Amino acid sequence: MEFAKPLVRATLIKRYKRFLADVTLPDGQQVTAHCANPGAMTGLNVAGMTVWLEPNDDPKRKLRYSWKLVEVGTGLVGIDTAMPNKIVAEALALGNILEFASYATIRPEVKYGENSRIDFLLTGDGLPDCYLEVKCANLSRQNALVEFPDTVTKRGAKHLAELANMVGQGHRAVMLYLVFRDDCTGFQLAADIDPAYAAAFADATKNGVETCCYATDISTSAVTLAQPLPMI
Length: 232
Description:
- The protein is an alpha+beta fold.
- It contains 3 helices and 15 strands.
């Protein structure tokens, strides 16, 4: 998935109110950028970090910049949590995810469960319907492992329970964790951050929900799905 416009390098001043970030542009101008990330962003919102912004000229938008990436060490980490679904959608359309390559039809945002929408409903002749949920993982605290979640997520636990219900109805259900950073070699649950989510994960997998994890290749021009990573 390519960025719509060339990204602009900036320096982070502070992130606040979850969805706002003040930054300094290369010419010294200070502006406020949209931060499309409701999570804790632990280790990713430190003043002085180099960030990458996507500019826009839409008169309907209040902010001219959207925060897309942040540099951590020698790597890049994705910030915009709306991007992972677009990355997965592109990979599904190209048949690049082997687990789902046999499915002919891909439908995004389909209503199911109790007032929920599944990220992707996959269907194909002779195949069970596949309910695919995507989660963005960009927290890393140790040993090159990415973790999820980075904050308590009751909504995430609900999604796991609803996926298990789909399995109980004879369908296939999969939770895909997209690693939105390029410096990790494996995945693990952040059970200390959200024990309830870890318990919901254990119940879901016991009841037949499949799980997988994929890395991403990240640059300041595009982000694409990469190789699968082990889940620890």
